[in-house]
Write a structure and sequence with these properties.
Blueprint: E1 6-10, E2 49-53, E3 60-63, E4 70-76, E5 86-87, E6 93-99, E7 105-109, E8 112-114, E9 117-120, E10 139-143, E11 148-152, E12 168-169, E13 243-245, E14 248-249, E15 258-259, E16 264-271, E17 312-317, E18 327-332, E19 336-339, E20 347-352, E21 363-370, E22 375-377, E23 384-388, E24 394-397, E25 400-402, E26 406-413, E27 419-427, E28 434-440, E29 445-447, E30 457-462, E31 465-466, E32 471-476, E33 485-486, E34 492-496, E35 501-503, E36 507-508, E37 514-522, E38 525-534, E39 552-553, H1 580-596, H2 599-613
Parallel strand pairs: 5-12, 19-27, 29-38
Antiparallel strand pairs: 1-16, 2-17, 3-7, 4-6, 4-17, 6-16, 7-10, 8-9, 10-11, 11-15, 13-14, 18-20, 20-24, 21-23, 21-26, 22-25, 26-27, 28-30, 28-39, 30-31, 30-35, 32-34, 32-37, 33-36, 37-38
């Protein structure tokens, strides 16, 4: 249990999480909840499927999957708004196991707000007045008919000044009872079960009482123009703060939480002590959205002139028919060498059951487990990200970066403990003096289904010396099943260099016609070859032209025909470059389109952020 938190357990009671609106969607002129994309979900032990619900400004439906009779629910209410001097109360946490029927529809509403305005929830927090802050909304899970299964209360909103300009604390969203604000008679009172909390009282005005459960559970408003805070919402709402004068106001009381004891078992209700969110140690709790200057973590009471932390609802279940992952196969991205801040190739694993059958939809966590200096996944606030496998069982992350030289180790792991590790070497000069040149084989033509006349040949050197007896990869850069392939139908093959020379196996044209690119890849450096497949009865060239492809690497002569630095390109005959007026016009047109779409700003933003962390 978290220090400073109190926990209420009831063995035969219940809890679940979701929501159905009991109160209106928004106050007049208020913005709807900020829609935060729901992250992918890694089930905890005993479960193999889960779903995270974030506040979207509208209720969401959840249909119980086939064969499922029980769901585990975890719900957080929204924290109240506040400042460093008058902190908002935290939202409550409720969890439990809910009895359900396959195919049954449930309603989920998750509390949230935008720019300090009341936004959305099962019920809404009360309004702060005269500089006071709004109370937090509640989150819920309800049946399709509107019957509550679980409600997690919101925290009260902080007042403008507190007592004698010394501040104060709003009441936290409670378990069965919400907490009172700490400004004495000026502070709003917490809800008691299904009864709304009383409003704070003062010579400058009294706060409104919170709504009873039968009336929707909204938080009470602060006294008009008082500087008081609004009450938190819940099963019943907390009372709004009262006012005395410009230097003395009350914060709002916290709402109460609820679980249907007839349908929810193993109930746990947690209320925090102060603005800190309850159950921050829970794997589904999350901090403030990445790069947000004002928002708080899930259910946290605000302490910086901002709204409280958003709510969250999580559902978990066990699907007995889902295949069990036996192995994770590394498909790409391992043992790469990249430059500082460069992403490199994606890290890709394939989740497989016994017998090599892919497991689609499997959750895979990619975690940075070792690094000599900071490494992170761009656009994520931590060094961990959960990814869902696609229909072929592939799970992929593309945004791993490092800001200093060193080796980063990333572990990919499923919830049953199956794991593999990747290494990523970060260097100032990622080519490390390596140069790969396309010597011959580029520019060939062959009819569909026929062999190309000659193999592809690349020269691999490092710091001027020829790389001997090391693995070089040849790869057809196409997902088209009718693209060319090497002997045996392989799109990727490994060969061993002989005094710098790497020679591919026979390349066979597929049924697809047109130009294709094949690359020779050594560590982080590539060279490209262009080949063409003609329709049958075409006229393939009798022999390849030497040095038709391109190269890349850390060459001291960047002006050489067949090499580049840190990337791959192409020459006039067999490459991908655009030259002359046509190429310049096309590139200019593309540039205008990308600029109009704001592409440059989006692409550069992660780089700028990563540099600021250094």
């Amino acid at each position: 249990m978290n220090r400073g938190s109190s926990v209420l357990r009831r063995g035969a009671s219940s809890v679940v999480v979701a929501a159905l609106a009991v109160a209106g969607l928004a106050v007049s002129g208020a913005a709807p909840a900020a829609a935060i994309p729901a992250p992918e979900c890694m089930p905890t032990a005993g479960y193999n499927e889960c779903r995270i619900f974030e506040s979207t400004g509208a209720k969401e439906d959840f249909v119980v999957p086939a064969g499922i009779a029980k769901l585990e629910v975890r719900a957080w209410g929204q924290g109240g708004g506040g400042t460093a001097m008058t902190r908002g109360g935290s939202g409550a946490f409720v969890s439990g196991k809910v009895r359900v029927t396959p195919g049954e529809k449930l309603d989920v509403r998750v509390a949230g707000s935008k720019d300090g305005l009341i936004g959305f929830g099962d019920a809404l927090g009360g309004k702060g007045n005269g500089g006071g802050y709004n109370g937090g909304a509640s989150s819920s899970l309800r049946t399709a008919d509107g019957d509550p299964l679980v409600i997690a209360a919101g925290g009260g909103g902080g007042s403008d000044q507190g007592l004698d300009i010394k501040g104060g604390n709003a009441g936290d969203g409670g378990a069965e009872n919400g907490k009172d604000a700490n400004e004495g008679e000026l502070g709003g009172k917490g809800a008691k079960g299904g009864k709304g909390g009383a409003g704070g009282t003062g010579d400058g005005g009294n706060g409104s009482a919170g709504a009873d459960a039968q009336d929707g559970g909204a938080g009470g408003d602060a006294a008009p123009n008082s500087g008081g805070g609004g009450g938190g919402a819940g099963w019943a709402g907390g009372g709004g703060g009262g006012g005395k004068n410009r230097f003395n106001q009350g914060s709002g009381g916290g709402g109460s939480s609820y679980a249907d004891s007839a349908k929810v078992s193993d109930v746990e209700m947690v209320v925090s002590d102060g603005a800190s969110a309850p159950r921050k140690d829970d794997p589904f709790w999350d901090g403030a959205p990445y790069n947000s200057p004002v928002e708080s973590g899930v259910a946290a009471g605000a302490g910086g002139d901002s709204p409280g932390g958003r709510g969250r609802v999580v559902l978990q279940w066990h699907d007995a028919n889902k295949p069990v992952v036996d192995t994770l196969v590394k498909e790409s991205g391992d043992n790469q060498t990249v430059g500082i801040y460069d992403r490199g190739e994606p890290l890709v694993v394939v989740a497989q059951a016994k017998g090599g059958r892919p497991v689609p939809g499997e959750s895979v966590t990619f975690s940075i487990v070792k690094h000599p200096s900071p490494g992170w996944f761009e656009d994520h606030s931590s060094n961990k990200v959960v990814v869902k496998a696609d229909a072929q069982g592939r799970a992929k992350v593309e945004d791993l970066t490092g800001n200093r030289e060193g080796t980063i180790t990333v572990r990919a792991e499923t919830n049953n403990g199956t794991s593999v590790e990747f290494t990523r070497h970060v260097k100032k000069d990622p080519t490390d003096g390596i140069k790969v040149e396309a010597v011959s084989g580029g520019g060939q033509q062959a009819e569909a289904g026929q062999e190309f006349a000659e193999p592809l040949v690349a020269m691999v050197t490092q710091h001027g010396g020829k790389v001997n007896q090391d693995k070089v990869e040849f790869r057809v850069e196409s997902q088209d099943e009718d693209a060319p392939a090497f002997e045996g139908g392989k799109r990727i093959v490994e060969v061993t260099s002989d005094m710098g020379t790497a020679t591919s196996p026979k390349l066979i044209a597929g049924q697809g016609t047109g130009e294709y690119t094949v690359v020779a890849h050594y560590k982080n450096v590539t060279a490209g070859f262009k080949v063409e497949v003609l329709a049958k009865n075409g006229q393939p060239s009798p022999s390849p032209s030497p040095s038709e492809g391109t190269g890349s690497g850390g060459d001291d002569d960047p002006g050489s025909e067949n090499s580049g630095t840190g990337g791959s390109g192409s020459d006039d005959d067999g490459g991908l470059a655009l030259t002359g007026a046509t190429g310049i016009g096309l590139l200019a047109g593309i540039g205008l389109l990308l600029a109009a779409a704001g592409f440059a700003a989006v692409r550069l933003a992660p780089r700028l952020r990563t540099r600021l962390r250094d």
